Amino acid sequence: MRLRRTVAALACLPWLAGAPASGAGGDPMMPQQYSLTQLRAPSAWSVSQGKGVVVAVVDTGVDLGHPDLRGRLVKGITFVECGARGCGNGDWRSGPASRRYEAFGHGTSVAGVIVAGRGNGVGIAGVAPLAKVMPVKIGDGLRLDPEDVARGIRWAADHGAHVINISLALAVESVRSAVRYAASRGVVVVAAAGNRTEPLCIEPAALPEALCVTATERNELPAAYSSMGGKENLRSVAAPGGQGLPSQVAGLVPAPDCAERVLSLWPRGNTGNGRCPGEGGYRLLYGTSLSSPHVAAVAALLRAQGRSAVATVSVLTATARTPGVGTGAWTPSYGYGIVDAAAAVRAPR
């Protein structure tokens, strides 16, 4: 599969980039993370930071040596051209040596949203800074095999994941079956709504067992590129994904200001081909691929409180807020609303 087709299958395109941090103490780049404020994540940390919870990132692998992920990863696996049993450790460069030049930074960005180290003197802070990420590599710049995706989901469910994040678009029976299997094992499955400006969530987010996440921008408005939260059982919410262009016009008109994106991690040494060139392991990006892990991370805060998968999703939807409406109402643009971490962790158990 060519790079263009693989990138289209991923729910967030790595178009945008930022600059590295400097200085010591705390998290120097945290002031740029408006997404944390929108989620009210810092107000939740006195109650839960996700300790003891494992979030599987079924994606393109993770930069295992990134300074902002030190101590925040568990054993992973690679399924790219590795067969049914897998190989490797989920590193973004793992897999056949002949293909490593096509390694892709998407999964590292997703992981950073969830667990980037808080108070470690570098970079940013994740929404669930004491949780752990399980890196499951199922694709790269050239390949996204549906069977690898399904294997990755099942492997994560069988190896201790409490939450699984899926930031890709794929409508095949093997993936549907794998999502059903993970849910039957008591795993919260969170998936990106898609960047198609459509009224419905794409698969796997559209599956009844998954929580679909649509994207908002800095001002809490629905992002222009994002698919909406429509699905049969209305199981959808919203979270920061950053501002950006609808995919249909990307590259045809000037991009919005880079500061409107969501700041996260990027593999060190990979400058990519974004519109806002980055370096040093940090980038500003946009897409529902970023909104989904924000919700997966809040789910980790709730799982750390001993809540079941069913209770976790119930609390996420019940406490989410829709601008101008409040809580408890479903709308096409926001689903049940923007996830509110502070309200969620304080919900009755």
Question: What does it look like?
Answer:
- The chain has a seven-stranded parallel sheet, with helices on both faces. Strands 8-9 form a two-stranded antiparallel sheet.
- The protein has a single domain (3-345), classed as Peptidase S8/S53 domain (Rossmann fold, 3-Layer(aba) Sandwich).
- The chain has helices at 3-9, 34-39, 106-115, 146-158, 173-184, 288-303, 309-319, 341-345; strands spanning 54-59, 77-78, 132-137, 163-166, 188-192, 210-216, 236-240, 262-265, 282-285, 321-322, 326-327.
- Strand 10 and strand 11 form a beta hairpin.
- Mean pLDDT is 88; it is low at 1-9 and 12-24.
- Helix 3 packs parallel to helix 6 and helix 4 runs parallel beside helix 5.
- With 349 residues, it is an alpha/beta fold.
- It has eight helices and eleven strands.
- The chain starts with a helix and ends with a helix.
CATH C-level name: Alpha Beta
What is the chain-wise order of helices and strands? Answer: HHEEHEHEHEEEEEHHEEH
Helix content: 10-25%
| Order of strands in the sheet with most strands | 2-3-1-4-5-6-7
Number of domains: 1
Number of strands: 11
Name the CATH homologous superfamily.
Peptidase S8/S53 domain
The assigned CATH architecture is 3-Layer(aba) Sandwich
CATH fold-level topology: Rossmann fold
Structural class: alpha/beta
Shape: globular
Beta-strand portion reads 5-15%
Number of helices: 8
Instruction: Please mark out the parts with pLDDT under 50 across 5 or more consecutive residues, or reply none.
Output: 1-9, 12-24
Q: Terminal Cα separation, in Å? A: 47 Å
> What is the CA-based Rg, rounded?
18 Å
What integer is the average pLDDT? 88
What's the main sheet like?
A: 7 strands, parallel
